[in-house]
Design goal:
Helices cover 48% and strands 12% of the residues. It is an alpha/beta fold. It has a six-stranded mixed beta sheet, sandwiched between helices. A hairpin with a 2-residue loop joins strand 5 and strand 6. Helix 2 runs antiparallel to helix 5. 39% of the residues are buried. The chain binds iron/sulfur cluster. Iron/sulfur cluster binds next to helix 5. The site of iron/sulfur cluster has 14 residues, from helix 5.
Length: 218
């Protein structure tokens, strides 16, 4: 089942006709330029030990964007986000939502792997965040689903716990944001999968019916 709201968006874009393709091509070109800039980036010391940067995967015109924390070992090796065991679980979650991984856009707050998979530090997040800001500006998702506390905290500029954040709609510059658990956490704590699925059902509903009104966002 493809989501009705996604279909509506594509129909609307088709009606707009000639403007759509040039914009899509423009977005892809700008994302390509940004990815090149990230590849050369030395704004924080994480560049010293990375194998390569990890920019994004998926559809640059997606209505739904997933944002995680930082690349892990497998992502650092392949240069793509969410390609290790946690990525495989994320793909399963996406299929369970009635979507395909190519229907969504997937990225991270940080583009270079922190050593030993430690949490990114505030100075590293601050250095890297402008790249994510630009990705969001270009992709223009209608809904963002953050994965794990560090991603939600960084995007929403808060230090609230996952318990306080997850399952509720928040706002990033007027875009509806739903924080849920990181799939790596779900692999360690499979008992929480039910709660994560409750969160994803809210995203499915919002994709079908449209995101919550801005006034309803925290
Ligand atoms: S984490 Fe971001 S800011 Fe730091 S070196 Fe990598 S791309 Fe640059």
């Amino acid at each position: 089942m493809r989501q009705a709201w996604l279909r509506k968006r594509l129909e609307l874009e088709k009606m707009m006709g000639a403007d759509v393709l040039p914009r899509a091509q423009g977005v892809e070109a700008e994302l390509g330029t940004l990815e090149e800039e990230v590849r050369r980036c030395q704004r924080c010391r994480l560049y010293e030990r990375r194998t390569q940067t990890v920019f994004a995967r998926g559809n640059p015109r997606a209505a739904l964007m997933f944002i995680g924390e930082a690349p892990g070992q497998e992502e650092d090796r392949q240069g793509l986000p969410f390609v290790g065991p946690a990525g495989k679980l994320l793909d399963k979650m996406i299929f369970a939502m009635g979507l395909r991984p190519d229907d969504v856009y997937i990225g991270n707050i940080i583009k270079s792997r922190p050593p030993e998979n430690r949490e990114p530090r505030p100075d590293e997040i601050a250095a890297c965040f402008p790249f994510l800001e630009r990705q969001i500006e270009l992709v223009r998702p209608h809904i963002i689903c953050t994965l794990g506390r560090p991603a939600a905290n960084a995007l929403l500029g808060t230090s609230l716990s996952m318990g306080d954040l997850r399952g509720k709609w928040h706002s990033y510059r007027g875009i509806a944001v739903l924080p849920t658990y990181h799939p790596a956490y779900l692999l360690r704590s499979p008992g929480q999968k039910k709660q994560a699925w409750e969160d994803l059902k809210k995203v499915i509903f919002a994709l079908a019916e449209g995101p919550p009104e801005p006034a309803a966002l925290l």
